[in-house]
Amino acid sequence: MQPHLKRVIILLVIALIAFIFIRSLIVPDSFGQYGWYRGESVIDNRNLQVGYAGSSSCGEENCHKTIYSIWVGSRHKAVNCEICHGPSNDHVNNVRIMPEPANESREYCGLCHFERAARPANFPQIDPETHGENLRCAYCHNPHKPWFV
Amino acid sequence: MTEGLIWGFVYPNEVEIQWSVLIVLYPYITGLVAGAFIASSLYHVFGKEEIRPVARFALLTALSFLLVATMPLLTHLGHPERGIEIMFTPHLTSAMSGFGYIYSFYLVIVAVEIWLSFREDIVKMALNSSGWRELLYSGLALFSYDISEKALHEDEKIAKKLAIIGIPSAAFLHGYVGFIFGGIKANPWWSTPLMPIIFLMSAIVSGIALLILLYIASMKLRKHPIDHKCLESLAHYLWVFLILDVALELLEIVSMKYESLEEIDIINRLLSEKIAFTFYGVQLTLGILIPFVLLLVIGLLKNRDTLKMILISISSVCVLIGVFAMRWNVVIGGQEISKSLSGTLTYVPVFFHPEGVLPALVIMTLPFIILLVVTYILPPWKDMEEETTQMGSILKKKS
Amino acid sequence: MKISRREFAKTGFRVIIGAAVSSTIIESIVTNSIAAEVSPGGGYDWKEHLWGYVVDTRKCIGCGRCANACKLENHVPFDEPVYRTWVERYRVLKDGEVKIDSPNGSINGFEDDIPAEEIKKAFYVPKICNHCEIAPCVQVCPVGATYETEDGVVLVDYDYCIGCRYCIQGCPYGARYFNTEKRTADKCTWCYHRITKGLLPACVQACPVGARIFGDLKDPESEVNKILDKERINVLKPDLGTKPKVYYVGLDREVR
Question: Is C140 strand, coil or helix?
């Protein structure tokens, strides 16, 4: 083979070796641990911060046990605390951090209870035009234990 | 603001169009590369002597466009600095993962092919120059100056083999770009096995058209007579591939309409409202029908070289615009229909934006600048000039 | 420079052999030895679970609390039109027209903007990533930045994603979006950080009517399995062969 062709091949081989070497430095160690992805990423995804603590942590002794026990026996028991009171995991870990105040507007209750054509007919709905004279719902209804105050 | 641009129902996450004009540019550029390379192989592999005047120039054109082919992609990535992962950990089930390797392989083929076909010139220039030019050309010659008959013969043999490898590589480089779209089952406008071959045919067409225009332009710039035989031969190939191209493009539409699957309503709406002008008007009429007729006329004309040249140039411009429209209709058109099949969106190109028209224009002018530099360093016409000046001096002596 | 057919074939043959040999060599170099599949640990064994999700469209009231909770739990850019889960409203009018919408992914609820007497039938359909068994998004990711875990959840590696958005194009359900803060693709994780700690996904916990049910398909006593055993269920776009793990009860033919 001609020397100039040898030089081309040598250059290409050097490039290939350099590539393989650089690759071995840069590809994360955990890549391919479980499959064609970075194994560490599973841990990363698992370690993300929890925002919603769940209602049971509200009902702990010395916390909101009374209101919790009222709510847990009510028709709103499927409506978890944090739906109205906002994500509160930080508050559970540190009581000084207060969650957002609950949204008490008519419209917020209306998200579920204003009459809508697409809602299942048996779900409790009111006509916002005629029902309640634009008062806040909580004026008559206890959100923690509907139907009566 | 986006509300007026949406008709019907689109999934909430679809409101933003993800692949912008830069992604239109990417298949356009790789198409030009593949086309130019295949045009040069007509001479290098299939021995079409009439193409010879542009054969080396075609290789340089392919290289110039190949060097910028990655740019629209990298500019578009959310994390360009991680782009190299596509070579480090290519996920082989992805049509896109091959890009790094196919691209690099092809770049090496084109570079070595160019080097071999210019080596004699490079060595001569290295020996006949001084200073930084000597250094540049010696470097390019890899400090090996053997241009004996035997060495050049071996070069030629290897160059031919590389060109043979180059054709399927070029076809693969671009066919697989078609598969990137054709393999997406979520999108009925993209998902067709014809996509790679349609992309390939339009690539060849656009590459030949570009070569014709660049050849005419450089001859005019250098005030050098045009080889009309070469030009007409290129025009002939342009015509042939144009027929294949239009046959496939129409086949796709016809079978889609004939089979009339679930998605036909939204496809019809796309074709009649969203991309009617760019599809029927630009892609099919301006890009295929007009050049097809013009090239047909050229075949009938006799001894009207200047007129023919003008008609060929017009056809080539039409083809280049038409193929761009084809890329646009695929990339943008496919995103203008919702995957819910119940609504459409509108892409509005922005000018000053990292993924807007301005960077697209910059990227599109780069290959021409690179080509200018490359042809300055490696003049592809050198041998012709010597021939003609010799001929000129002989003629002078005779008179 | 003409070449004979023989020469062409010979070269072609050499190329194929060469490519095959070199690809095996490269393959052996680039593939990290895949260790025997073990769980990432931390008191949770992903081999013991296979998560599944049931949506009962008959129960949904379109309050959008799920979509709201999801955005807050997962720090999804709140004011951008990107959603990990959302609720769609379908209204089939008496003249036969089908109106579909999902204003702000249902986060602000729905307004009745068509008179009830014009509507033949109407219903809500919650949507979420289907965590497909054969996920097109995983298939098309060019670098391995999205993957399916052993317990059946499709996740994104935010430190590895190059942001090419091919997965967004590849998802037939519109479940993926581009996160402009991370500059990567993003999607529902079924709250992987919660379910691996024994909590429910935020959307499931937020649903006041039990339209969203989450559980372990490997546990025969789980609520999802009870529903799958009893109800007539369907999945979205079954013809695409993605094998979704979000199962729908009461799915209408109009639902896309």
Answer: helix
Distance, in Å, from the CA atom of A17 to the CA atom of C145, rounded to the nearest integer, reads: 26
Residue B79 has pLDDT above 70, yes or no: yes
Interface touch C208/A27, C-beta < 8 Å: no
Please, what are the domains in chain C?
50-128+190-249 (3.30.70.20), 136-186 (3.30.70.20)
Burial A45-77 (b: 16+ CB within 10 A, else e): bbebebbbbbbebbbeeeebeeebeebeebebe
User: What pLDDT sits at residue B389?
Assistant: 54
CB distance C206–A83 less than 8 Å?
yes
Strand C184-186 versus strand C146-148 pairing type: unpaired
Domain locations in chain A as residue ranges: 3-46, 55-139
Contact: C81, B15; criterion CB under 8 Å: yes
Range of the domain at B203: 3-381
Tokens coding B106: 């092809």
Structure tokens at C145: 């930045």
Residue C1 has a pLDDT of 44
Given this model, what pLDDT does residue B170 score?
A: 87
For C237-247, the pLDDT digits (tens) are 999 999 999 99
Computed over every residue of chain B, the mean pLDDT equals 92
Please count the CA atoms within 13 angstroms of the CA of B18 that sit on its side-chain side. 27
Q: Any idea what the Cα angle at residue C212 is, between residues C209 and C218, rounded to 5°?
A: 135
Calculate mean pLDDT across residues B299-318: 92
Total domain count, chain B: 1
- Our CA-based measurement puts residue A80 at a distance from the nearest CA of chain C, in whole angstroms, of 7
Give the pLDDT score at A35: 95
Interface test with A, best of B106, B117, B137, B142 (most A CBs within 10 A): B142
Contact A36 C89 (CB under 8 A): no
pTM: 0.90
B107 → chain A, closest CA residue: A12
Contacts of C105 (CB under 8 A, 6+ apart): B12, C64, C67, C81, C83, C85, C86, C87
pLDDT of residue C256: 86
Q: How many Å apart are CA B16 and CA B19, to the nearest integer?
A: 9
What residues of A are in contact with residue C198 (Cβ under 8 Å)?
A: none
- The band of C4, judged by pLDDT with boundaries at 50, 70 and 90, is low
Measured CA angle at C245 (ends C242, C246), to 5 deg: 110
* pLDDT band (50, 70, 90) for residue C233: very high
Which chains have 3+ CB pairs within 8 A of B?
Answer: A, C
Give the CATH number for residue B317.
1.20.1630.10
Q: Look at residue B10 and give its three-state secondary structure.
A: coil
Distance of CA C211 to the CA centre of its chain: 18
> How do residues C173-195 score in pLDDT, each as one tens digit?
999 999 999 999 999 999 999 99
User: Cα separation of C164 and C185, whole Å?
Assistant: 8
Predicted confidence (pLDDT) per residue in C35-85, tens digit: 445 677 678 999 999 999 999 999 999 999 999 999 999 999 999 999 999
**Cβ-based neighbours of A100, under 8 Å, separated by 6 or more:** A85, A86
CA-CA distances (angstroms) from residue B285 to B6, B251, B319? 28, 16, 10
Q: B334-356, pLDDT tens digit by residue?
A: 999 999 999 999 999 999 998 89
Given CB atoms, is B14 within the 8 Å cutoff of chain C?
yes
Choose among A4, A23, A31: nearest Cβ to B144. Answer: A4
Cα distance between residue B34 and residue C146, in whole Å: 32
Quick check: B65 and B106 in contact, CB under 8 A?
Answer: no
B122 part of a folded domain: yes
CB-CB under 8 Å, C200 with A112 = no
Q: Do C144 and A38 touch (CB under 8 A)?
A: yes
